[in-house]
């Protein structure tokens, strides 16, 4: 990208009025330094598996435990989390973003195996394409230019060192969480005209064995909104792995299927029912307990409903309708399109809104009900 195009892009970005969530998805690289001079990362060493993949529970709390994360902030953090996970090479199994902290259960693959996708000439092109997940075209163009400059000077070893130094950031638990928290902090402070640290100390991480231990940890995380008294049904919480999975997210469903060690396409036939019964069982509390959770009768009733397939289809439809309940239109295709044109100016983004068929609980399109989100 030549300098004229870069300047035009920068002028456009500076003049455009971005919504908070658009700013949360802004890519890095609007102002660039020399990439080759970037030093490696430092910090305290954490327990890290280097001879294979491993699962971790990560938790971080807002400074002083303040309740600073509202719906917009949670949504921004959720979007950043998924994007940074894809970029970093880690797999999100489930998560819960609360008012003053977050939990993430994730799997970190073996770095050596994961990096094989970037080997050779074709792999190098995939690497630069991969960078576009979080870096701007201007940044990638500069990175390419520095690699080309080194090779033109017959310094192939230096070019490989630069590429490898960048690639060492992948499949690294500490760097994934560090960058996620730093990116969110910059976004949050800018939105709130705030300065200073946002997070309390460094994040906490625990190695989790696969199998029952991993399933128990997933249940603990997805029950956070219930324990906090925010919702009675964990499926109705928008910023959790289970809530997102019930809402139809394939990536969230894949994560929970990996927790349960079942086939990736078994959510509707096996995984959802089993996991829901597990959640209610884990959420049971003794009679008279001050902890929030489920009575023995509620647990038994839920298990019966799941076993008889009485609740799951309607649960997923109810979840989708709830997710489409703020600033939207729900109805026939003509009705939704008419409302979109009439109230377009009230939405955060000014591009044209489209009516989308509301999916059925089995994953197919309903054919007659359409919805349109407002943000």
Structural write-up:
The protein is of the alpha+beta class and 375 residues long. It has three domains: 1-208, Alpha-Beta Plaits (2-Layer Sandwich); 211-323, no CATH class; 327-372, no CATH class. The protein is 49% helix and 11% strand. The protein has helices at 3-15, 20-24, 71-88, 111-114, 120-131, 137-152, 156-167, 173-192, 212-222, 224-227, 241-246, 250-260, 267-282, 296-307, 312-323, 333-342; strands spanning 54-61, 91-97, 101-108, 204-208, 329-331, 356-359, 365-372. The strands form two sheets. It has a four-stranded antiparallel beta sheet, with helices on both faces. Helix 3 packs antiparallel against helix 8 and helix 9 (212-222) crosses helix 13. The model is unreliable at 37-47, 346-350 and 360-366 (pLDDT under 50).
Helix content: 40-55%
Largest sheet: 4 strands, antiparallel
For the termini, the CA-CA separation is: 32 Å
Q: Quick one: how many beta strands?
A: 7
Question: What quaternary form is this?
Answer: single chain
The geometry reads as globular
Enumerate the strands of the largest sheet in spatial order, edge to edge or round the barrel: 2-3-1-4
The CATH class designation of the largest domain is Alpha Beta
Radius of gyration computed on alpha carbons? 23 Å
Instruction: Name the beta content range.
Output: 5-15%
List SSEs in N-to-C order: HHEHEEHHHHHEHHHHHHHEHEE
User: In DSSP terms, counting alpha (H) and pi (I) runs of 4 or more, how many helices?
Assistant: 16
Rounded mean pLDDT score: 81
**CATH level 3 topology of the largest domain:** Alpha-Beta Plaits
Architecture of the largest domain, according to CATH? Answer: 2-Layer Sandwich
């Amino acid at each position: 990208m030549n300098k004229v195009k870069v300047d035009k892009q920068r002028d456009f970005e500076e003049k455009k009025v971005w919504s908070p969530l658009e700013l949360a998805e802004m890519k890095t690289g609007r102002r660039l330094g020399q990439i080759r001079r970037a030093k490696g990362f430092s910090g305290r060493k954490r327990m890290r598996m280097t001879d294979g993949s491993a699962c971790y529970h990560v938790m971080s709390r807002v400074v002083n435990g303040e309740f600073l994360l509202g719906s917009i902030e949670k949504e921004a953090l959720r979007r950043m989390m998924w994007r940074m996970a894809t970029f970093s090479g880690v797999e999100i199994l489930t998560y819960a973003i609360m008012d003053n902290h977050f939990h993430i259960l994730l799997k970190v693959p073996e770095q050596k195996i994961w990096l094989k996708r970037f080997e050779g000439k074709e792999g190098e092109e995939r690497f630069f394409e991969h960078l576009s997940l979080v870096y701007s075209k201007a940044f990638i163009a500069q990175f390419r230019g520095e690699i080309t400059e080194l090779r033109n000077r017959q310094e192939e070893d230096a070019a490989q060192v630069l590429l490898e130094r960048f690639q060492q950031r992948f499949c690294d638990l500490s760097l994934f969480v560090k960058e996620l928290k730093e990116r969110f902090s910059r976004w949050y402070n800018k939105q709130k005209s705030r300065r200073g640290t946002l997070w309390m100390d460094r994040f906490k991480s625990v190695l989790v064995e696969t199998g029952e231990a991993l399933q128990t940890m997933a249940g603990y995380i997805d029950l956070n909104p219930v324990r906090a008294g925010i919702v009675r049904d964990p499926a109705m919480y928008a910023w959790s792995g289970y809530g997102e999975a019930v809402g139809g997210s394939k990536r969230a469903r894949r994560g929970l299927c990996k927790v349960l060690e079942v086939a990736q396409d078994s959510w509707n036939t096996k995984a959802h029912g089993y996991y829901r019964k597990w959640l209610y069982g884990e959420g049971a509390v003794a009679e008279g307990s001050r902890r929030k959770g489920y009575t023995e009768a509620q647990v038994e009733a839920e298990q019966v409903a799941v076993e008889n397939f009485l609740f799951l289809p309607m649960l997923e439809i109810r979840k989708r309708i709830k997710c489409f309940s703020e600033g939207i239109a729900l109805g026939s295709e003509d009705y939704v399109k008419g409302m979109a044109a009439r109230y377009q100016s009230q939405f955060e983004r000014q591009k044209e809104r489209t009516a989308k068929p509301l999916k059925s609980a089995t994953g197919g399109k309903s054919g007659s009900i359409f919805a349109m989100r407002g943000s």
